[in-house]
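Section 5.1 Outputs to date
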Amino acid sequence: MHMQLPDPASTRRPAAVPYKRIATEEAFAPPEMLDIYRRMFDAPDVDPGFKGLMGFYMSSPSDRAQHIMRCLTDLDALRLQHMDEAGIAMQVLALTSPGVQFMDTATAVSFARIANDFLADAIRRHPTRLAGMLAVAPQDPVAAAKEIERGVTQLGIHSVIINSHTQGEYLSDPKFWDIFAAAEANDAPIYLHPNSLPANMLQPFQEAGLDGAVYGFGVETGLHALRIITAGVFDRFPKLRMVIGHMGEALPFWAYRLDYMHRATVKSQRYASVKPIRMQPSDYLKQHFYVTNSGVAWEPAVKFTQDFMGMDRVLYAMDYPYQHAVDEVGMMDNMALSAEDKKRFFQTNAETLFKIKA
């Protein structure tokens, strides 16, 4: 099937539409966090995936890297200009990957609060243009749970961003489940966003240049989501909701095989770690997850996922500033959807999920 790809250099302003375009996976970085990263790069034990990803963006003279670093730290004039040029009414902001998750525990806990206050200040400056997700430090699950409660009750931010693994550890480990308990108690969905690959997974991807957004991110984040499902997290926390981007990190397209092989693996008793769960993996995807199309401006993939997940569970995202192609907005506007379903995709699903006031 032919795919229309946008011209990355195009700045053609999308047409006016009868709905608000809310972009739901848009990154930012307080300048102080980048200073912490610079100090971390010099450490002898710096994580190779972290250094290979953020070390590149923060040092490369390429136009792409310079654009990303300039846009990450601007939550005012430049960002609003880019939103206006793309016809984006509102961004839901998330602390850029890896956020605080490669920091030492004390620094991570402290800076998560700083980042959330920084975000809340930006939202107060631009309340009709910006919303956000709370950063937490999974390194200290109890502190992370407290920060979720503070963010919801004091800052008015109603969702959480976690950038996949934390120093090679996954939320499927029950030691992290205070985070799920707090998210469920505060009705705060968790957005599971990609991270650079953990050290024990990196080499075969990196040697082929496939460790980043081109492939490795989706593989690792999809793995993380599946670990959460198969660990029985949603059986333990039945009201917990999660979000995954990039068209569900391909999991909707694998649903049949995931169900079949999980059922076969449980029956075979091949792995002590694979225990029965109450539903099929695909049922948890459809009942507990929401999917954004961040970085995938492709109508067949969007429509398949809407058919699989339901119209109320698929949302628009741009993936700014890592993917900032204005033509993609028009491509999504032109999808063959009813006016009602198009409004759900661009606007009302996001308003409901992230508790954005219309």
